[in-house]
C-alpha cells in the first residue's frame, strides 16, 4: 500500500500515544492495583434484608477494626438513609439490591458502583470530612430522581465508632 | 501534500428538466427515509421537554412517569429507529449505485414492513406507559412483552437488510474480478457484517431471557447475564451508527467540498478494522458492575484503545481531503483553505460541524473508556452529554446532511426550503454546544443521568447544577428548532419538491489512484476478516460468560415501577 509520508508520521504518532495509554493503564491497574469495583459474590435478592450479610445495614467495625458500610438499595431509597463515617479512613462499602438495578453514587467523589439484585458489590475508598449526597444513578422507576441518602464524614477523632462485630460477616 | 498536482474541478451539477425512469429501489429507499424522519421528529419534540424538565421547570403534563416514558421513547426512536432506518436507506442507495439494482427487492420490502411493524408494536407499548424501561431495558425492570417482541422484529428486519448488503457486495466483486468494489460498498458490507455479529448478543438476550420472562414462561432472569449480552451488542451498535457517517465523510464529502479523497486504500483498512475490533470491548460499559472480575474489564479496556486507531486514521484522511478541496478552491496559507470550503452547502457544513463536535466527543470517550477514570463519570449527565456529540451529532448531523444530498437523488425532486437546510446544521451546532458543554460539567459535578428533576429534595449539593441544566434546556430548545427545520425540509421535499431529473450519485474520486486503477488486497477480504472478528469475540467473551454462568446465581422476578 502506498501511504503518504505525513500520513505515515501521523499513524506512528497515534501508535505512540496508544502505547502511552497502554502503559499508564497497565501501571495503574497492575502496579498500583487501581480497579473499578469488580467484586464477585451472589446473594438471593428477595431475602437480602434477612441475610446475615445485610441484616444490619449501616456502619460497622470488623474484628480487625476496619470500617464497613452495608447498604441495601430498594425502590426508592437507600437503607440506611443516613450514615456517619470517619474522615481519611479506608471504608469498605458492601451493596446489594432487593428489587431492580440501582446505582450507588457518592456525589462529587469517584465512589460509585452499580447495585444489582442477586449480586453484592464492594469497593473501598476514603473521604475528606464534609457532607455528601448519595444519589441513585441508574434508572430504577418512577421515583428514581428521589432516591438519595446522606453521608456525614467527620474527623476520625470525633467519630463515635460502633462496637466491633463478634464474627466477621465477609 | 500534493494538492497542486490535481486539476481544479468544482462540480456544477444542475438538475435537468428531462425526467429519467425511476431507479427500481428508490421507493424502498424513500420508505426507509420516511420512517427515519418521522421517528426523528417525534423523538426531538420529546427531547426538548426532557431538557426543560431537567432544569426543574414546570411544563404542561409534566410528571415523573411522563418523563421516563418520554426518555424511553426518545432513546428508542433516536438510537434504534431513526439511525437504523436511515442506515438501511443509505445502504440500499449504495447497493443500487454499485450494481444498478438491489438483490431480492421483494424480500427487502417484506423485511421493511416487518421492521416497521416491530417498531409500531414496541413504541405503542411505550406510549401506553407500559414499557418505561428506557432503551437499554435492563431487567428486572419489565416491559410489556410486545416491547421486546417488537424490537426483536426490528432486528430481524435489519438482518434482511444486512443479508442484502452482503449479497450486493458479492455481486459487485463477481462483476469485476480483481478490482475492489467502491469504498462506499466496502464500508456498507463491513457494517452489515459487523451488525450481524453484534446483534447476536441482543438476539440471545431477547429470545432466551427477556421474551420468555415477560410472557411469564420463566419466573426469573439474571440481570447480570442480560446486561452482559446487552453490551455485547451495545458497543458495536455505536459503530453501526458511525460507520455509515464515516462512509459519507470518505466517499461523498470530498467531492461535495470540491476535492478528492486523500487516501482511499487506508479507508478500506479503516472499515475492515472496525469489523474486526468493534465487538470484543463491551465490558467497558460495565466497569462499575459486580460479578465480572477486574481482569476481563482490563482486557476489554486494552481492546478499546486499539479501536481508536481506525478513527484517528480517519481524522487525518478527512482533514487532508478537506485541505485538498480548500486549496483547489483557492485557499492559501496554513489555514486559509478552511475559509474557502463551501460552508453554505448543507452536506458539507453538517459534516464539518458534526466533526468538530465529534472531536470533543472523542476526547470525552477516551475518558469514559479509561479504566480508572470511568468511576468519575459513569452514569452521570456527562455520559448523555457525551453521546449526543457522537451519535447525536457526528452520526445524526451527518445523516441529516446526507439526507439533503440523497433525498433529491432518490425522489427526483428538488430540495425544498433550501434556506432552512442551510441554517439547520449551524443551529444544531449551537444548540448542541450549549446542551452538551453544560451536561459534561454537571456530570463532573455529580449530576446523575436519567433523572426527571435535578433538585434531590433541595439537597445543597444539587444547587450547583441548576444554572447548568437551565443553559442545557436552552440548548434543547435550539436543538428542537433545528430538528424542526430538518423535518420541514424533508416533508417539503418529499411531498412538494419540484420534479426534475437529478444528477446521479457520484462517489468522490481518489487522489493518487494508480494509472490502471486499484487491485483488490488483503483489506478487501471481508469474509476472512469476519472470521477473525468471530475468533476475537470468542476470546473476549467465552471465559467471562462461562464464569458468570457457573456462579450460584439467583434470578429476579419482573418489576414495573412506572
Ligand atoms: C433535538 C435534539 C435532542 C435533544 C434536545 C436531546 C435531549 C435529550 C435529553 C434531555 C435526554 C435525557 C437525558 C437524561 O435524562 O439522562 C436524552 C437522552 C437520549 N438521547 Fe437525546 N436529544 C436530542 C437528540 C438526540 C439524537 C439525535 C440522538 C441519537 C440519534 C439522541 C439519543 C439519545 C439517547 C440514546 C438518550 C438516552 C436515553 C436514556 O438514557 O435511556 N438524542 N436526549
Ligand atoms: Cu434509581
Ligand atoms: Cu462502548
Assign the CATH architecture of the largest domain in chain A: Sandwich
| Largest interface, counted by CB within 8 Å of the partner chain's CB | A-B, 66 and 78 residues
The count of strands of chain A amounts to: 10
Shape of chain A: elongated
Architecture overview:
The complex is a heterodimer of chains A (170) and B (562). Chain A has 170 residues and is α+β, with helices and mostly antiparallel strands. Chain A folds into two domains: 1-36; 45-158, Immunoglobulin-like (Sandwich), CATH 2.60.40.420. Chain A is 16% helix and 32% strand. Chain A has one helix and ten strands. Chain A has one helix at residues 5-31; strands at residues 58-61, 67-74, 77-79, 82-86, 91-97, 102-106, 112-115, 121-125, 130-136, 148-154. In chain A, the strands form two sheets. In chain A, strands 1, 2, 3, 5 and 8 form a five-stranded mixed sheet that branches. In chain A, strands 4-10-9-6-7 form a five-stranded mixed sheet, with no helix packed on it. In chain A, strand 2 and strand 3 (77-79) form a beta hairpin. The longest helix of chain A is centred in the N-terminal third of the chain and has 27 residues, at 5-31. Helices cover 67% and strands 0% of the residues of chain B. In chain B, helix 1 (26-54) runs antiparallel to helix 15. Chains A and B meet through helix 1, strand 7 and strand 9 of A and helix 2, helix 6, helix 8, helix 9 and helix 12 of B. The site of one copper (II) ion has 7 residues of chain A, from loops. Residues 235, 238, 284-285 of chain B line the site of one copper (II) ion.
